[in-house]
């Protein structure tokens, strides 16, 4: 994923990496977990200062990227996610990026929110899932009803990442027979947020109830006609970030598991000299390169806003989501008993990867989507 | 990555080249429907004669050997030009059966290891459609242990006299020359006493027999050598340096098997056993277009197919820029076998009883394809060996124990007869 040719990008990567190694180490992730904290707002502000939050926003709206424009920014953002995966870093990189991708494409009336999100002073999340429902972003039951001054929002969302730590939510709702999105401050009267625990040590989610929440007309993000495209783009960013972060996780876990194969001796031989284990390692290497290949391909399509981006992110999510958890389970097996202890870091990685496997569509959901897209192509 | 990648020899952009190819193809090559390509049986003579004619047309049109160096009859262009040509030529009939092994393995190896004269003679003859090349490597006595071959080449005066047998040679019946590995010194360890020869297939002293496979294909051959005589000009590389040549063949073969060679031209199906599976059509044929379980299964196979293509590209460029070692070609080789297994398993499930009894819906062929599933995991070197290669030469783990290492070949234990 790293295009080392650009020295500015290399510097950006190095700065990001040293910041994360210093301030979001695995030890720090454990501390946050013990303290019941998801991430610290001040830490996120400093992360934002490194440029993470400006990547999907064009320069005229206060954004920018080292690789040039929003297209380059998509690639830079994937690089940040990959590096974050190396220490399963905390923080709202995914939800903030998803919301910013929508606001950047439909900025009217949201300039100050964009500014606050880029500065890391505000945190926003996408309220898209609904209780009891699978991944279906275009089928909301939450409603937005027109009022004299704007809209009234009613209903329940859940699995809202960092929902309890967000000041803004981008809510998907049904409005006059169309799907629309609204940017709703979490301190609005009628908003009730309950934290939901996840498998991950630091990533938390929330159930959010909207009881007659009144917002101005300006809360709408994009027009009704625009919304399907905005949601498609938001989904692409969400899936791309998951895959890129998982590639970072796998890169790290494979590196120390391969090293273990050289260092650990049984019956007077290194583990990696046994053919049964050597073949397991070979499969890990094959699947890892495949995960990287399909993620890179998806990132490139999303960066280009290509018509093939929908299919590319579903292909990547299906493959990476299917393989990555099993790969880490194999790494646990290769480590032996130490691999299933709380003390060893393997479970931190397994938790993050398993979480991502099943959010924003399971591999099975995306298999269905790839089939449907193929069916559509062959019909035309 | 390899010595065979040559520098660009043109100022024409990829787009200009593609436009010129488009115009030329429309004028000169027969059009086909890429979804329903003409079904060619590689085991028959006809398709080979046809391929030679088509290759001659490509040569005359100036589109043969896009990535082969100019001095040997190619165009000396980078892979992007070949890929552009592949896209442009999807709707035309191309001599695809000449890709492997003629171009991707044999000509590529001659380019790496042959003498100047051999390169000038054989690469350009192949590009003109005048020579089909094959590999004569495996022997009836052994499979994966290639360096343990026992076909012998003995020095008699100024000639080499060959005795022994080779097997699993792809389409040897249609070939003009074969790259044949033989033992020339029995007193040294196995890798050090081998020599590669380029054998004219129509020589006296060679008896050829077809091998019939599970699916009825008779493409593969077995050859018996009885006092076949060759001159020194038939030696490729050094005498007793045959393993270095064979290693280049294996390297090119692993890349080619998965579809990762720049020397392949055209991307369509090779023949009736190679047509991509159209799941949408098959679900409709079994009346299950809305069956979510089958749609999901088919979707998964389509995902894996797409990832295979992305992986080939990733590994090709990774080896080229040095981020992956050359032995990573084996990643492509294994993925090729895995996708075959997944696709044939999937289609067997989806077709249900129509895949096993001919009820007139033309789906029995998918059951037949399932029966040959393992050929993709065996041909071009088994996946077990490929996993050893990744473990040892990509990840660096210790080599497997070999009882014949450092032992003069004549003292190595062989099959009990």
Structural description of this entry:
The complex is a heterodimer of chains A (380) and B (417). The two termini of chain A are 34 Å apart. The mean pLDDT of chain A is 96. Helix content of chain A is 53%, strand content 15%. Chain A is globular and about 80 Å long. In chain A, the strands form three sheets. In chain A, strands 2-3-7-6 form a four-stranded antiparallel β-sheet, with no helix packed on it. By secondary structure, chain A is an alpha+beta fold. Chain A has three domains: 7-122, Acyl-CoA dehydrogenase/oxidase, N-terminal domain (Butyryl-Coa Dehydrogenase, subunit A, domain 1, Orthogonal Bundle), CATH 1.10.540.10; 125-222, Butyryl-CoA Dehydrogenase, subunit A, domain 2 (Beta Barrel); 226-379, Butyryl-CoA Dehydrogenase, subunit A, domain 3 (Up-down Bundle), CATH 1.20.140.10. Chain B folds into three domains: 14-131, Acyl-CoA dehydrogenase/oxidase, N-terminal domain (Butyryl-Coa Dehydrogenase, subunit A, domain 1), CATH 1.10.540; 135-249, Butyryl-CoA Dehydrogenase, subunit A, domain 2; 276-394, Butyryl-CoA Dehydrogenase, subunit A, domain 3. In chain B, strands 1-4-5-8 form a four-stranded mixed β-sheet. Chain B has a four-stranded antiparallel β-sheet with strand order 2-3-7-6, with no helix packed on it. In chain B, helix 8 packs antiparallel against helix 9 (329-351) and helix 9 (329-351) packs antiparallel against helix 12 (383-394). Helix content of chain B is 41%, strand content 13%.
